């Protein structure tokens, strides 16, 4: 075999491309997987993409699901926005034939009969939570099954299970959850394969970026994921996210609705409907983009009228507009709480962003900090993104990029400076600095005119090699808007890029998640095999392992 | 629950066979399995708990079905919604069937959409059917003159909602023709989305539309050529150009064409001698989008080994201009949004609600941004058994027709359960006994309910009912089936009964049934041609926290005092086991040695049923 491979290589140089493609394709099943084989297996996939068979295959578009704690987004590959967004709530958990939601009005609008604990208040509206201790995985499977079935029947209007399924999932998923999700999908429908795509990377792709810092202000947690050249470099997370925001807003509205003084209602109990509170939050929660309170945005005396918490269907009540920004500030930025008092999992979001950038190597940091992408439900709150960026830039001004800080350090620095001042004379130090700096400037100023051809040469070469490096924005804080993880997954799938993690039905049903190879990087030929899924001997969970 | 009392639900047996997960076995062995209902951790009395734990290791069927468990909501169905597979001899619920779409149609105009058009129409009606973006009522096409009271049929046309009086004039849209509204609207919304960016929009449109690889080649070249010219200078002074506000779809198309161009450029690299002949959509080249690896250096080593190693293959770059889909957040941020939110004229109704936004473009925030959406199509679906692919339901294709070619509903095979309260004749007056009010059952006072099972099969059925003596959950009601084993007659000709009854005294009259006296244990209450009625004696339990509670230890726990929603509903799980001798099917007859035609096969079916009796009063 080894002797025959160079000869086909020679043929390739002389023969027209199409014929040797066919040749290599026919030769490939019998030949072993030697390293020389790799280019040819790539060729085989090239050929298959232009053959009529592949165009037939292209017709059944993959279906993309982005499954989050609160919502499922679903649609076809190549579309810019999902065909539908389906939520989870008590109405979705009712029995078939139980039409109470229609008879009495959906639950969660009116005030609750009695105050409930803030955690119980949100529990019914979540598909899952990452704390698996009190999570019934069977119930999660039931919910997913029903949600997907109804999505297919009502929105996608296509037969479930015939086409490929692509899931955009956060890259940190508890394995039991992932396992029940996949087994629910595979055992209920006949999906040939399920591809997993990391939602953070997809968000970066949907912003047109290769490297980014994706800040996902989600339901249960805010994650900041640094992505460098499409790879997740580091991830940090904080519990300051929409769930806390909703609970805080619920408390405010509870106080607003109750006649009691706020002091009496400080118990961690909420008595307003969840749907009502969510409506208020999505409509009117806002955040002052300036760090200082009382910025230029709106007068503090403005009031708006929102439906009354006690009787949302009929009455309205006035609330100061500024008060609607309080929960956002309190939850996301934790004003008045020093950083050392917060646990690792409840850092405020600017600190979270700053810390994530700090852990990156300087190159990656420079690239990522000018590509900050906000996704998730919380990023819709007006002003929040700007505020986060403002606070991050304040942090950078304050600390620079040094992780070392503290009172002792400052004292030490002061002492050193005092020593420096006392030992050295100011007259000596300053003139030398001043003289050296201008001399550099003067020395360089004539240079550009002289070195113009040289710079041009370098730039030309750079441009020939990789065109983008010369114009890369770097080192400044900048926000880039993304279309979201769903759109990214749709984009990537429609470009016929295969994900690293493609789980095939038979293999999963045999071994479950345990069948995945432990290597995070699968062997290269598997990924080059393109549309031919059959020759994958092993599969991996890559980032999900 | 929402159904008026009394009601019956049937649990599909598929809930008892959990999803086979190869990994689960190991997992559950490693960590102790959670109790299935976390909401009621202290359901059982102390002496029951060890037994419960033992049961957990055994088969799940051994456990009593708990209608209050959150999972049971997903397996309980009204009896009329269930199907029956004749091959598997099993009840089939929507979870254990597969569905195939027979036809697509618009629920508004009842026109069938051909399958080739469904996807291109975005699963929505391609005619003039639109839903109101604010209240979802169907919109009507009318002239502006009609709206103002003039009767002429000419002039600009608008879509107007008859329910909430919304018209497209509110968002400044008028139509020239009363037909083909959808294409007109599409043109207008696209134009508003891309006010100044016709060129890039045009280019992206062509990319999206072209399917053939050859034609997209040509346009790719054009695109890259034009980008070479315009891209660089626009890239350099990118900061000065205000980013045009591309709509979501336009941005997506721009990004897509950008990635396509990048992929084609990077795959036709000089280092890759074969790359120039190959399509940009080849997956091997596309892999480089996600990561770079050393394949091309290997290629050059193979094919140009003696030559000097070529430079690195061109790397895909990121999007740099807004025509490539990049969008930098504006400098002033959301200041104007906040300003508008806080302004007086916006108000609560000026902001779109979650429900209104759900189907709209994700950028929509204010009610003015909502555009009418065409009606979502609906489907007629054939249903097959998931395990044997036997077809269970096949509707007629025509949208107007409500007939079915095949429909195997479960009620033709399993007895229909109906429940009604029994008004016990008191000793004093024979006829006027008060029927207990099912919406407020007094606790600790026995109630008799009549459970009638009506057989629709042509074979007599033997039924065995089983029920836990105490209902699961915190509200422990005592239940006794007075005659758990009985027969139901075959669904024979109606005239048989009439003829029989002509001679025999009428037994099926419900009024006379009250004269029957007191219910006795082991005795069927009433029986007809194909139905049998038995009596259930129910003693409703007391609600936790009510004063009727006699020192139960549940109150001791703090927090459990509050009743969960619907905890006061008295639901009785009943296990139904039915046996009958069915006629053997044809193939079975042929397989067996030439047997008699009236060969009978014993069949059995077992399932859980939930009887909703009523709501228990909070206090005595």
Automatic annotation (TrEMBL), chain A:
Pfam families: Actin. Residues 1-58, 420-453, 513-545 are annotated as: Disordered. Residues 44-56 have a biased composition (Low complexity). InterPro entries: Actin, ATPase_NBD, Heat_shock_70_CS. Residues 16-43, 421-438 have a biased composition (Polar residues). It comes from the Eukaryota. Residues 439-453, 518-535 have a biased composition (Basic and acidic residues). Belongs to the actin family. This is Actin-related protein RO7. It comes from Penicillium atrosanguineum. The lineage of its organism: Eukaryota, Fungi, Dikarya, Ascomycota, Pezizomycotina.
Automatic annotation (TrEMBL), chain B:
Residues 30-43, 213-240 have a biased composition (Polar residues). Keywords: Acetylation, Coiled coil, Cytoplasm, Cytoskeleton, Isopeptide bond, Phosphoprotein, Ubl conjugation. It is found in: Cytoplasm, Cytoskeleton, Microtubule organizing center, Centrosome; Cytoplasm, Cytoskeleton, Stress fiber; Cytoplasm, Myofibril. Residues 1-72, 190-247 are annotated as: Disordered. The keyword Phosphoprotein applies. Pfam families: Dynactin_p62. InterPro entries: DCTN4 (IPR008603). Residues 53-64 have a biased composition (Acidic residues). Coiled coil: none annotated. Its main location: cytoplasm. GO terms for cellular component: dynactin complex; stress fiber. PANTHER family: DYNACTIN P62 SUBUNIT, DYNACTIN SUBUNIT 4. Belongs to the dynactin subunit 4 family. Subunit of dynactin, a multiprotein complex part of a tripartite complex with dynein and a adapter, such as BICDL1, BICD2 or HOOK3. The dynactin complex is built around ACTR1A/ACTB filament and consists of an actin-related filament composed of a shoulder domain, a pointed end and a barbed end. Its length is defined by its flexible shoulder domain. The soulder is composed of 2 DCTN1 subunits, 4 DCTN2 and 2 DCTN3. The 4 DCNT2 (via N-terminus) bind the ACTR1A filament and act as molecular rulers to determine the length. The pointed end is important for binding dynein-dynactin cargo adapters. This is Dynactin subunit 4.
